[in-house]
């Protein structure tokens, strides 16, 4: 989902709700989503989270309290959030934001399954030396 697919809905409004840790997105097709910052952070499209190919994903933990401290527009197709844990390399295209919003329930279920399979807790601190990945990026 690197770019905007032809005919895809585009955002008509983006609102960062820092207190509730929610990104509210309204799309041109009438869909509206309230995407938790934590969901965005654990499913960041960056290589630091997704790896460089299938099966290389790095399970993110300890992101429940993460904030978006800045939301930078990237052309007419994406935004780049800067998270309070220092992560800032993910470009969230409109298509990807729509995917996150529309599939929140299954994404959360998948995340819970991955946590259980790895034997780690959602709020476990990430090991900066390798382990589960780096929490600073």
Characterization of the model:
The protein is of the alpha+beta class and 137 residues long. The protein has helices at residues 37-42, 47-50, 94-102, 104-118; strands at 11-17, 22-27, 32-36, 68-74, 78-83, 92-93. The strands form two sheets. Strands 1-2-3 form a three-stranded antiparallel β-sheet. A three-stranded antiparallel β-sheet has the order 4-5-6.
In short:
This protein is of the alpha+beta class and 137 residues long. The strands form two sheets. A three-stranded antiparallel beta sheet has the order 1-2-3. A three-stranded antiparallel beta sheet has the order 4-5-6.
Key terms:
24% strand; NE0471 N-terminal domain-like; three-stranded antiparallel sheet; globular; 137 residues; single chain; alpha+beta; 4 helices; 6 strands; 25% helix
């Amino acid at each position: 989902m690197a770019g905007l697919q032809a005919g895809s809905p585009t955002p008509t409004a983006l609102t960062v709700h820092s207190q509730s840790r929610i990104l509210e997105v309204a799309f041109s097709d009438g869909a509206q989503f309230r995407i938790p910052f934590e969901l965005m952070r654990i499913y960041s499209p960056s290589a630091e989270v997704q790896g460089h190919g299938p099966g290389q994903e790095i399970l993110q933990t300890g992101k429940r309290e993460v904030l978006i401290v800045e939301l930078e527009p990237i052309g007419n197709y994406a935004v780049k959030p800067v998270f309070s844990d220092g992560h800032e390399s993910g470009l969230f295209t409109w298509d990807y934001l729509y995917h996150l919003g529309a599939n929140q329930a299954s994404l959360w279920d998948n995340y819970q399954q991955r946590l259980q399979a790895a034997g780690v807790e959602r709020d476990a601190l990430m090991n900066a030396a390798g382990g589960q990945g780096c929490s600073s990026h």
